[in-house]
Amino acid sequence: MIHHDVVIVGGGLAGLRAAVGLCDRHDVALVSKVHPIRSHSIAAQGGINAALGNNPDARDDTWEKHTFDTIKGSDYLADQDAVEIMCKEAINVVYEMDHWGCPFSRFPDGTICQRPFGGAGFPRTCYSADLTGHVLLNTLYERAVAKGVRVYAEYVAVALAAEDGTCHGVVLIDQVRGTIIPVLAKATLFATGGYGRVYFHSTNALINNGSGIGMAYAAGVPMKDMEFVQFHPTTLLGTNILMTEACRGEGGYLINNKGERFMERYVPKAMELAPRDIVSRSIQTEIETGNAFENEQGLYVHLDLRHLGERMILERLPGIRRISIDFAGVDPVREPIPIMPCQHYSMGGIDTNTRGETTLKAFYAAGECACVSVHGGNRLGGNSLLDTIVFGKICAASIDEFLREQRRAPVEGVVARKKEEMEIKIRKLSDSGNESPFRVLDDLRKTMDECVGIFRTEGELEAGLERVLAIRERYRRVKVSSSALHMNYELIGALELESMIDVGHAITLGALLRRESRGAHFRRDYTKRNDQDWLKHTLVTRGAGGEPFVSYRPPVITRYQPMERVY
Amino acid sequence: MTDDIYTFKVLRYDAKEPEKEAAFSSYRVRVIPGLTVLTVLLRIRDELDGTLAFRSSCRAATCGSCAMVINGKPGLACRTQVAPFESRTIVLEPLPNFEIIRDLVVDMAPFWNMYERISPYLIRHSPAPEKEIIQSPEDRKRIDQFVNCILCACCYGACEVMRREPDYVGPAAFAKLQRFMLDSRDERPDRFLESVNNGQGLWGCDTLLRCIDACPKEVRPTDAIVGLRKSLVKYRIKRAFGMDGHED
């Protein structure tokens, strides 16, 4: 059995930031199922929000205004104390990343560049061309190397070991050596990312399947606000690769098959820079009312950058241009980009407080897998990178404090028992059964796309819930080709599939019960926000028999009383 | 329509079973335009052969996981379209110059060791300012191409020097080193280059430019190596004339 003070699962921005914050004082292990530099933080493009006031149009910007924009963007579901913490700390973390070498793009005066993003009152999104996630992740990984953080690369966490309301560690599979390893830890942090791959169409990497959220749920920690799923307005037709909001931030247009800038009809003031939930619904409405283009890959509208000119595209959006050419055969300098909305981000996740603590003692969560909540019903662009770094840093401080005060040692037996349980599970997966894990997963993804999408209705959600329950039944019969543990991606996928079903179930259930429209959750049968009955977080807890149990909790409101959300 | 059926030949090997020699498995797959090599590989694993091992994640040429040799050339499977190949047979092999772990998955440890050897992080001694460290747009531009490196190791797979000299620092690590040497905020002394002033370091490169050819992100590691050599020579001349006194 391996022993560490802290085990961090997830090598993206949140996990790395926590590791960098803890490794000087504690024995830290950073576990990642891919090499940390392959984590999905790398794919973020547009930027990170902080009220630096560098842009000449943003001299009056303040962290308080950033806070208000975020709360309004969340459709008032975010916890306002959490948002205040994040937006205030934003300024520090961006300077800190610069001091650690992050190559942000620069204004002529040598300060960090900031561009406009949706739902923001000022241009406050700091960026490095359209590769902001890439430069931030590289910088934090570089910092981790400089500090000698112990990394377990290509080790997959498969279960949390918890008993009596306390976390005692995790069980890992070492994919290279093909062994199962119990890890005893005084504190465990999950920074495992979002669950985008529960949907068929998603911008997310293949590794983003919500397995961390599912493991926490299985250990008794509630999932929060799972029905709030962000659908990004502009993803490349066919592959659904993200086309950053910066395309619109820099001035790009959305155009339908009649040649209209159709956002004029939906949000005449903010136009293309309305928040993502609103723009996605507008595009989907255009698609459903016959205003979309169509080819063999489906229905789409145009993201037109041509008027920005070649120079600006090459300087500010070079990655977008490359992706468009490589994956769609379209050069945005000359042609509009075919785009459609699809799943992009998980507002919901592991229920945590503003210190990253959960209901399970010694277990923490940060980044997209966590729900603090700073994004509420809808996240603003540029706030996800911020969330990861700020709450990675905060978790490091909370864990440090916890370790200084902690008196009870974690118990080996708990982790050993969990390891045996996992061994039995793995044997069973390769022993008997007749269901292909891929078929079951494919069905889950299609169910989520078809029944729990941008627009939702009672009937579709009920059908979706039935389908998820049937999928859960089929999972019991899943069989994989081999029980070998080394580089057996089919087996890992089959183990993670159980979490994905739990995640899909919670999303569907939360959406079915929430009879209102708020942020990204839009019900055609309840089109208005209903603060009287629904200004509350959804919590889904695993019941004794494995069934989900739903409860609610009001959000924290400090200074901003809910108002109508107009842009 | 039969001409859209492709044969994918994938080299299979398992380091856990060294007695079994590496051999190709063939899979017949229908390909529609727009399909990438990675999409096909995923389909093979999902529907035909669950034991096939390869790395993948972002499927958008940003994470660098899926580097492999595709019809003889190192590249990213996610970025390589199938349809444009003239042949209806696609041969997939693991990246050369690395040990195979399983099938298309190679042991990247030597690559990361070289990366760590060049101290791949910003080194500063000056106290941090209250706000950002000022850097002009021109200075930022100088590091642009090297910042773009995704550490996929296509260049290591393509490098002829790597083949004969496994201890060669290699193209990606030098691109990273130059990214810091050229960064106006980095304060590492020029004498740092002494650590790579040998045949396994800066002088190992044959400037065959294979790395430039192989790079999926338009990084030119050879530019880095040539630039670093110039800096090293300059530093040596300065030192010979006793002008390096206040380097750091």
CATH-defined topology of the largest domain in chain B: Fumarate Reductase Iron-sulfur Protein, Chain B, domain 2
* Percent in strands of chain A: 15-25%
Number of domains as seen in the coordinates of chain B: 2
Number of helices of chain B: 9
The percentage of residues in β strands of chain B lies in: 5-15%
Form type of chain A: globular
The CATH superfamily of the domain at 230-344 in chain A is Succinate dehydrogenase/fumarate reductase flavoprotein, catalytic domain
Structure commentary:
The complex is a heterodimer of chains A (567) and B (248). Chain A has 16 helices and 22 strands. The model of chain A has no long low-confidence stretch (mean pLDDT 97). Chain A is globular and about 65 Å long. Chain A has a domain at 230-344: Flavocytochrome C3, Chain A, domain 1 (Alpha-Beta Complex). Chain A has helices at residues 13-22, 63-73, 80-99, 132-146, 211-218, 246-249, 263-266, 276-288, 310-316, 318-328, 384-405, 412-431, 437-451, 458-475, 489-513, 531-534, and strands at 2-9, 28-32, 48-49, 114-115, 125-126, 150-153, 155-163, 166-174, 179-190, 223-224, 229-236, 253-255, 293-295, 298-304, 337-346, 349-351, 363-365, 370-371, 455-456, 522-523, 537-542, 548-553. In chain A, a hairpin with a 5-residue loop joins strand 21 (537-542) and strand 22 (548-553). Chain A is an alpha/beta fold. In chain A, the strands form 5 sheets. In chain A, strands 1, 2, 6, 7, 8, 9 and 17 form a 7-stranded mixed sheet that branches. A 5-stranded mixed sheet of chain A has the order 18-16-10-21-22. In chain A, strands 11, 12, 13, 14 and 15 form a 5-stranded antiparallel sheet that branches. In chain A, helix 3 (80-99) packs across helix 11, helix 5 packs across helix 15 (489-513) and helix 13 runs parallel beside helix 15. Chain B has 248 residues and is α+β, with helices and mostly antiparallel strands. Chain B folds into 2 domains: 5-106, Roll (Ubiquitin-like (UB roll)), CATH 3.10.20; 109-240, Alpha-helical ferredoxin (Fumarate Reductase Iron-sulfur Protein, Chain B, domain 2, Orthogonal Bundle). Chain B is built from 9 helices and 7 strands. In chain B, a hairpin with a 2-residue loop joins strand 3 and strand 4. In chain B, helix 2 (109-117) runs parallel beside helix 7. The model of chain B has no long low-confidence stretch (mean pLDDT 95). The interface between A and B is large, with 61 and 58 residues.
